[in-house]
Design goal:
By secondary structure, this protein is an all-alpha fold. It is built from two helices and no strands. The protein has helices at about 5-35, 65-75. The termini are far apart.
Length: about 80
């Protein structure tokens, strides 16, 4: 069996370049995710912001299904 050094060096070079690009792309992806993600996602909201889990006392609990759907699509509640 004959081993071609040129063929094996080409394969080795391909694997090295592939791994370098893989590391570069995964590092870039992690960097982009860190830039986009919020710093403290669970902090208490400031200003007039409210958490989604809180309920408003001004809304009556006796709404029909159609009114609740309308409010859901209108306000996102």
């Amino acid at each position: 069996m004959v081993f071609s050094i040129r063929r094996w060096t080409g394969r080795l070079l391909f694997i090295i370049v592939f791994l370098m690009l893989l590391i570069a792309f995964t590092g870039g992806y992690r960097w982009i995710v860190n830039v986009i993600s919020p710093l403290e996602p669970y902090r208490v909201p400031k200003g007039e912001a409210v958490k989604v889990t809180t309920t408003s006392d001004s809304m009556p609990d006796q709404l029909s299904i159609s009114e609740r759907l309308r409010l859901f699509y209108w306000y996102g509640e």
